[in-house]
Amino acid sequence: MRIFKNPNYDFVRWTWHALVLSWVIILAGGVYIWKNGIPKGVEFSGGTIVIVKFDQVPNLDRIRTALPDGANAIVQTYGPDTSREVMIRVPSAGAEAGASLSAQAEAVVASLNSAGLGPIAGTCSPQKPSNCLSGTEIVGPTVGRELTRRGILATVFALAGILVYIALRFRISFAVGAVIATIHDLLITLVFLAVFQYEMSLNVVAALLTITGYSMNDTIVIFDRVRENMRSMRRDDLATVINTAVNQMMDRTVITGGSTLLAVTALYFFGGEVLKGFAFTMIVGIITGTYSSVFIAAAIVLLWQRRSHRKAAPAAPVAPVAPAKKSTKRRAS
Amino acid sequence: MYKNLRWKLLTIFAVLVVFGGLGVYPLVAQRYHLPLPGWVEAKMLKLGLDLKGGVHLEMRVNTDDALKITTTSVSERLRDAMKAAGAPDLNISVTSPTTFRVEGVPQANDSQFRASADEIAGENYDRNPLAGGAYEFRMRQSAERTLRNDAVEQAMQTIDRRVNALGVTEPSIARQSSGERLLVQMPGLTDVARAKEIIRSTAILEFRLVEAGPASKEDLLKQYNGTLPGDMEMLPGSGAESGQFYVVKKIATVTGQDLRVARPGLDENNQPAVLFELKSQGAVNFGKLSGENLGRYLAIILDNRVISAPRLEGRITDSGRISGGFTSESANDLALTLRSGALPASLTYLEERVVGPSLGADSVRAGVISSAVGLLLILIFIVWYYKLAGVNAVIALVFNLVILLGLMAYFGATMTLPGIAGFVLTMGMGVDSNVLIFERIKEELEAQRGVRASINAGFSRVFLTLLDTHVASLIAAAFLFQFGTGPIRGFATTLSIGLFVNLFTSIFVSKTLFELELSRRKTPSISI
């Protein structure tokens, strides 16, 4: 069974449209982020989250007005309705005011109690299933800065490592294409996260770094076929070689992308509150990752090769030189 | 029959038995109360705090404290040495955790001072002469590094003892890569406030002679005409005497390090108290101190507060009692912290997470259910699309899962939510590997190659592609592990192990299954 019977789409023709579309999204997103910022979870911004499990969930506005710093607090129901949990988040951690770290969390509970919404005491346990704290999370300001720094470092080093690896295994133009495509995916995903108001959390960072891997995986699979075709299609120009490779891989792209998307969508719908941000990031990342390996990564290789050919030898033949390879097997076609 | 097929099948079977026994069997055994040998249980897959519930604390060890204690003690020893040699009391001030300054060394005593300084501070401090008989001592960088490192290590051990004394079942205490940070995780713990208090209390216990007090700050200063002698300091009282102050000796003769045991008990008024016994050298020192100072008062100082100041009625050697307004719980906690030793430096909490067990259980259920649903949907699709070859892929994927679980149990990895996500992702890569191989086989078949040749070509051609994608992902995972913390590291671990396992299952296991099918048919054919 095949999904596509001998597909022969001219993907390369859409290179410029794709580049423009991506730039428009990234620039518009950049402006949006510049104006509104990226919402940061407590891990990065510091602050206090208290999750209270109630007998019966009171009106959220009542909780908000009860809080000492109600205007800056985020109050929302947490998880499915049946869990009767409310998440209260205040932007400051106790440590900033010089008090102990948990002072802010204690203040939240005290104000709920004094507003008659309680009595809320202690951590939930099997013996104490309601009107209790089912979770608190307090992050001081220094931790967030450190995390941001390390997150950026991890991304930069991972990209550099992959750049070197692909440059060694393929050529430098492929490496640059793959890395730019990955940066492209990260930027687009960030834009979507910001617009849909998903908070930057450790889980989301894990997802972002995963799509780096996924996007790279996708790109390498296509590149590998391009490299192979370069040997068997010496007379054709690079655009044709790339088009052939992408068309040959269509079934695989759709099946793999589709099934991974399926798994992550299941995670999005059934994975619970904690994994929602992770799953959303993955969904966006897989879609742009698939798109970028065809339209961005390959396009950059093409542009790079054309430019270097013009530069190096204007009269040189258009056909690219095959990379030196140990294997001399010819592809049957 | 393909050559070596039997050996390949045996290898796969052995791998499956070993890792299934390590990873899957304990999970099943635990659920259905089957026999479980101890060494298997010890290696079982642990659940992370986000799944199990418990307390996660990240703290910084303020190593400046330890440096300051060292600097102060060196400077005081220098003062004592000069005093014993007959020189006038030196004017010594500790200007930073690593520096102290000595002023007013008389010309006549200068060479003697230099000799004492070389003996007492020479090893770790650089001495810079300043004008007018003054010197500045600065701790050497190598000494500073060692001291800071020792302080963190010692803090870690002390916290470990305290957490264990709290009765937490599987605590984990780890030093973060940034040096001064410690991460403490206590699964299943609920009394957070008490745990935090016990972990953080410095518990530096000292016995020092009282020079004056208790009285108000002003009255005490008046007794000394406004400035205290260099070898004394003023400390606040605690409990009933808070607001009152004592003037005590700066140097302690006996400290918490001399304690052999400490346990809760009762004092002569049947009030909760802490009873202690001293080690031999401490007992000698204590005997000398109490014998020479009968009738005077001895301050029992905990973390720079005077808990009580009993009168020395007789020679005390190897045991004693600390009383002063305890409840039975606080006496218990103090005994616990004293037993575990003093923290070399104070702690600042940076991050605190408390996950209730119900929140954790919900997350496990949601994560497991969604992973299972996602995986099942993919498997159904693969079998429908690739027919019999799809069954091979499914078997390879199940092997992948079993081996991954076994390896994670073997490495003592902790399962967290991002870890589960890493599982889903590994499965995704596993599906991709199989799809790549199958699509290639289809292409080769369309190019009118024979069945055997197509299968061989499919596997061997795709192998390099898989190697490239897996190595690239491994590079990314390595950096994630290097820079990530907690759950992200768990994710990176799962992914890395998963990538290796996937290469094995999608190339070796899947190919062997194809060979097995071909070997059972007379005319080679394939359902793909």
Quick structural summary:
The complex is a heterodimer of chains A (333) and B (528). Helix content of chain A is 61%, strand content 8%. By secondary structure, chain A is an alpha+beta fold.
SSE topology sketch:
The complex is a heterodimer of chains A (333) and B (528).
Chain A (H helix, E strand, L loop, with lengths): L14 H22 L5 H4 L1 E7 L6 H7 L7 E5 L6 E6 L12 H12 L17 E8 L1 H29 L2 H24 L6 H31 L5 H11 L1 H21 L1 H41 L21
Antiparallel strand pairs in A: 1-3, 1-4, 2-3
Helix pairs in contact in A: 1-6, 5-6, 5-7, 6-7, 6-10, 7-8, 7-10, 8-10, 9-10
Chain B lengths: L4 H28 L5 H5 L3 E2 L1 H4 L1 E8 L1 H22 L6 E6 L2 E5 L6 H11 L4 E6 L3 E6 L1 H25 L6 E4 L5 E7 L4 H9 L4 E11 L1 H7 L8 E5 L8 E5 L4 E2 L3 E8 L5 E7 L1 H13 L5 E5 L2 E4 L10 E4 L5 H12 L7 E9 L1 H54 L3 E2 L1 H30 L4 H33 L2 H34 L9
Parallel strand pairs in B: 1-19
Antiparallel strand pairs in B: 2-8, 2-18, 3-4, 4-6, 5-6, 7-8, 9-11, 9-12, 9-15, 10-11, 13-14, 14-17, 15-16
Report on the architecture of this protein:
The complex is a heterodimer of chains A (333) and B (528). With 333 residues, chain A is an alpha+beta fold. Chain A is 61% helix and 8% strand. Chain A has helices spanning 15-36, 42-45, 60-66, 103-114, 141-169, 172-195, 202-232, 238-248, 250-270, 272-312, and strands at 47-53, 74-78, 85-90, 132-139. Chain A has a 4-stranded antiparallel sheet with strand order 2-3-1-4. Chain B has 528 residues and is of the alpha+beta class. Chain B contains 14 helices and 19 strands. In chain B, strands 9, 10, 11, 12, 15 and 16 form a 6-stranded antiparallel sheet that branches. Chain B has a 4-stranded antiparallel sheet with strand order 7-8-2-18. In chain B, a hairpin with a 2-residue loop joins strand 15 and strand 16. In chain B, helix 1 (5-32) crosses helix 14 (486-519), helix 4 (63-84) crosses helix 5 and helix 11 crosses helix 14 (486-519). Chain B starts with a helix and ends in a 9-residue tail after the last helix. Chains A and B meet through strand 4, helix 5, helix 7, helix 9 and helix 10 of A and helix 7, strand 18, helix 11, helix 12 and helix 13 of B. Strand 4 (132-139) of chain A pairs antiparallel with strand 18 of chain B.
